[in-house]
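## retry 2 of 3
previous attempt timed out at serialization; input unchanged, resubmitting
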Amino acid sequence: MSRLTKGYLIGLVGITIWSTTGILISYLISTYAFPALLLAFWRNLLVCVALFPALILFRRSLLRIDRVRLRFYSLYGLGLALCNSIWTLSVQANGAAVATVLGYSSAAFTAVFAWWLLKETLRLPKIVAVILSLVGCVLVSNAYSPEMWNINPLGVVTGLGSGVLFAGYNLLGKTAAQRGLNTWTSLFYSFAFAALFTGLFNLLPGLPGTAEASSTCYPTSRHRAG
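## retry succeeded, writing output
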């Protein structure tokens, strides 16, 4: 199997799994009134809880990092924390289907950011794909309608924001790969720092999506439909 083919297969499997998270998040929020940012915190923390014993038992050396890499992983974790937080808020505000489509705008933003920051090529076919992707996201979310910005402005902003932040997280992952950092080490420490940052987010007073925030600050899609 070629490296490119393997990459496509891993990407398709990852997208398939990631697409189910919106459904699960929406279910937990609508059924159990789980605060969005608290849910984001537990998602990050549980990844660390699952990975830590496995790394201790099988590859303890992967847990050893120096200060330079620690600083990079803290930035990586902050990007992941912001991405997961805004994504979870988007699911709460828009519902799983619309939030997922808006989250996939990250592909277009990734192409633009990679061209801007990493000097990757951006030829005509990719430009057309970027434009069509962003236009599709605008149409799905009804972001072209002034009424939507009056009814659910935070939904539109968090939906597109999740795409931008997911693109940033993708570029951080590519940077980690270019530096030759181990995938499992990057995964563990990025989620560890993300858990730390999302934990701090939940302590901020008045922030939408926290346990203390009013349930009316960020109405769910079910409430809007009613």
